[in-house]
Amino acid sequence: MAPDGSFTGGQAARGTRRRVLAVAAAVVLGILIWFLAGTEPGQRVLAAVDALVWVALGCLAGLALVVWVAFFWRARRWIRLACLGLAGASIAAFFGLFRLESFTGSLVPIFVWRWSPRAEDDLQQYLAEREGPFDRFVRQVTAPVDLAETTDHDYPGFLGPKRLGVVANVRLSRDWARRPPRELWRHPVGAGWSAFAVVGQFAVTQEQRGPEESVVCYELRSGVERWAHGDPACFGGTWMHGVGPRATPTIHNGRVYTMGATGLLNCLDGRTGQVVWQQAVLRDPARQNLRWGMAGSPLIVGNTVVVSPGANAGRALVAYDLEDGHEVWAAGDDPGAYASPLLANLGGTDVILVFNGAGLAFHDAASGKRLALFPWVTQGDDRVNIAQPVVLADYGMAVRTPQVLITSGYGEGCSLLEIERSGNLLAPRELWHSSRLRSKLSNVIVCGGYAYGLDEGVMVCLDLRDGGRQWKSGRYGHGQLILAGDLLLVQCESGAVALVEPSPEGLRELGRIPALSSKTWNHAALAGNVLVVRSDRMAAAYELPLAE
After folding, report:
1. Distance of alpha carbon 8 from its chain centroid, rounded?
2. Considering the entire predicted model, what is its pTM?
3. Which of 275, 264, 267, 270 is nearest to 305 (CA)?
4. Is 71 helix (H, G, I), strand (E, B) or coil?
5. pLDDT tens for residues 292-351?
6. Domains and CATH numbers, the chain
7. Which of 191, 266, 354, 542 is the right S-S partner for 244, CB 3.0 to 4.6 Å?
8. For 229-245, what is each residue's pLDDT tens digit?
9. DSSP string of 465-519, one letter each residue
10. How far is CA 137 from the centre of its chain?
């Protein structure tokens, strides 16, 4: 040791080697946590969260290192002060420049500049500016809202007609480079993961506007707000999953049916947004609500509107009268989840399918009686079954007996089920299971005997005959899909929209536009060739070029 207290020769070398070895051990530990935790990113991040004790120990070790550098390291004083200053300045600079905004679908944190405007600030500024004399005059003199006048291009609810994510009567241009989509309008919207429902020339969505959960009607081609209805409710989410409503409105016979994140079911007059009737689907929202809020969109079945609250004995599915909102029937004991109920005809029987917390449940459409359950639990008590079940016959596939495809993330994969009749009940039987498609937040599209979906954010094509993977390519994040004619529109999690040709030969992306610029879990809606997109802070509409 030198007279001034610094290490010399072999002592300094040994100290350096120890520090290098410590850093290397930390890196190796992180790699082991990441790769041994599972094959999908969200699972890995959750494993890292489960290892917070190691992080805490690491922080304590870091603090001990700081104390050692400050008081016990025998290096020159200016070197110690420089190291401490550099570490402190780096930490202060990072948190001074950035703030944690949210998380992606793979649980990767999203940091933004600290001075970036918050979504609520943008919304309030927009609401204040639109209330000028000209805007009020426009709303007074324009034609009245009419949601009873339907067209062949309507997209009246979650995933469009029949909840397939298919718009068959449109042929889009394949060349966006020569003829790019034209932006019609863009402006801020309130928070939430709702999508647009479109009937005629009007688009309706759900937003969180301050303390109110709102249903808002806009003109499709101009974005002008025509009416808004608000209820004093706010689902207080987290950085990870955000605040506001999750479900998409359903428009039927001129009325708008909405499910709020806290379980408030609304029936609104489509002309004015005035309440026709309301029902509190959850009798005790604080105790009965799902962890991430009610997300299932209302389903019209005959003269009833059906919702899937779950979590209540005998109320896995509940049907209310369309006209006055009285309860018609309630059935099932399964816990709730985040998919929406779906009406399908299975072998001549009208059945309501719901991918709830216990699995895929089959209910009689008239009485609600549960006919079958195929068990499928994702993430234990979190019960995060989200992706819609896919009935192959609804996509034009000729099958001997009804077949349904289900999928979820967190390593679960997908299964194709064959539905047979067993007396007065149904008997689902698994034909095959594959880990090649794990759709966490996204829907799946069937085209030409193949399933196209986002496997933890990467596009895959599966052969529905045996579940074999044709290809896997293209990182779109946890986005959503629409089959428009013979082309796929992919709403990327980043906000971009991509045009993709579905082919078992490989990924063929034909074009892309930066439709939005922030995390987008919301489904897009396509009415004719007008694409309406939104995130939890911004909405926009594009006119897509048609095939020549």
Report:
1. 59
2. 0.86
3. 267
4. helix
5. 899 999 999 999 999 999 866 788 999 999 999 999 999 999 999 999 999 999 988 899
6. 9-113 (no CATH), 119-543 (2.130.10.10)
7. 191
8. 999 999 976 666 889 99
9. TT--EEEEEEE--S-EEEEETTEEEEE-TTS-EEEEE--TT--EEEEEE---SS-
10. 37
